[in-house]
Write a structure and sequence with these properties.
The protein is of the alpha/beta class. The chain folds into two domains: 233 residues, 3-Layer(aba) Sandwich (Aspartate Aminotransferase, domain 2); 84 residues, Aspartate Aminotransferase, domain 1. The protein contains 14 helices and 13 strands. Helix 1 packs across helix 11.
């Protein structure tokens, strides 16, 4: 079975499993798990930030960031397709007591001017905007990469206006590999970033939130009351360390296979947006029926709309898997 539903379905490689089983562990809630401490320090260094916090999921990382940067009654600005608005179970409202104001972007990305026009004047009738959150790569935009000039303008503009800037970097290493820009440069103007270890990097569990030391110290308490304080988490942290050291550059293979998939689907006559990273969105007349048909032929996919299927390449999909997928889509049209 070829599983293209998401890059979250990956399983640890044998070498990653070996690293996990030989991990040096302690109790992370007490702060003495050496593998967790090493992962957090390494992640912070990569992001060019002061500190990191290992969390079970990207959702928790984003929600801790929102809680750290806002007060109840504040407003958070983000693109309408963003993960914290669509897929985090109204966590911002429940945990932080904030409202999200969604803005319309292009391919999941916000232009700086769109953000500034949405910041309302200081008036007792309005919720004050205090945080801007952007997603890079933009999932619902098709795995698109923000232009560095736009990121710099957003981060610097937030600072000028007294706002905080957070990056939901669930797949930011796809952006790093796709753009050739180092992570520390990508987030240079941002206050914080969350990135996932369990998507394209292939770890079984976990994300890291990076930011200023005082923010991460505060975030550690929020992690605790959300139930994210784990004990011998070093086994999981070791997988994250291995992923960061061995699975970043290989994301280029996923991107190349994604382009092969796009090219083949285009030749078959499908309407497909050209991918920037590891995602292909395919237009089909009846997406749910097509998903079921493909599954019968050993290809698992995910319908994101009545007429659209998302395909995501990852380290568990090889060249033969791409050919099998294209054969399945050819059969759909037969």
């Amino acid at each position: 079975m070829i599983d293209l539903r998401s890059d979250t379905v990956t399983r640890p490689t044998p070498d990653m499993l070996a690293a996990m089983m030989s991990a040096d562990i302690g109790d992370d809630v007490f702060g003495d798990d050496p593998s967790c401490n090493r992962l957090e320090a390494h992640a912070a260094e990569l992001a060019g930030m002061e500190a990191g916090l290992f969390v079970p999921s990207g959702t928790m990382g984003n929600q801790i960031a929102i809680r750290c940067w806002t007060q109840p009654g504040d407003e958070v600005l983000m693109e309408a397709g963003s993960h914290p608005f669509n897929y985090e179970a109204a966590g911002a409202a429940v945990i932080s007591g904030v409202q999200i104001k969604t803005l319309t972007g292009e391919n999941g990305q916000l232009a700086p001017q769109t953000i500034w026009e949405a910041v309302r004047v200081d008036d007792v009738h309005f919720a004050p905007a205090t945080l801007v959150s952007i997603e890079n790569t933009a999932n619902r935009g098709g795995g698109t990469i923000y232009d560095q000039d736009a990121l710099d303008a957003i981060g610097a503009g937030c600072t000028e206006r007294g706002l905080r800037a957070h990056m939901d970097g669930a797949r930011v290493f796809n952006a790093v590999v796709g753009s050739g820009v180092a992570l520390s440069r990508v987030v240079q103007e941002f206050d914080s970033i969350t990135f996932c270890l369990s998507k394209g990097l292939g770890a079984p569990v976990g994300s890291v939130l990076c930011g200023p030391a005082d923010m991460i110290h505060r975030g550690r308490r929020f992690r605790k009351f959300l139930g994210g304080g784990m004990r011998q988490a070093g086994f999981l942290a070791a997988a994250g360390i291995y992923a960061l050291e061995h699975h970043v550059e290989r994301l280029a293979d996923d991107h190349a296979r994604c382009r092969t998939l796009w090219s083949g689907l285009t030749e078959l006559g499908y309407a497909v947006r050209e991918p920037e990273t590891n995602m292909v969105y395919v237009t089909v007349p009846e997406a749910h029926a097509a998903v079921a048909f493909l599954a019968e032929r050993g290809v698992q996919t995910h319908a994101v709309a009545a007429d659209c299927i998302r395909l995501v390449t990852h380290l568990d999909v090889d060249d033969d898997g791409i050919e099998q997928t294209l054969a399945g889509f050819a059969a759909v049209r037969a």
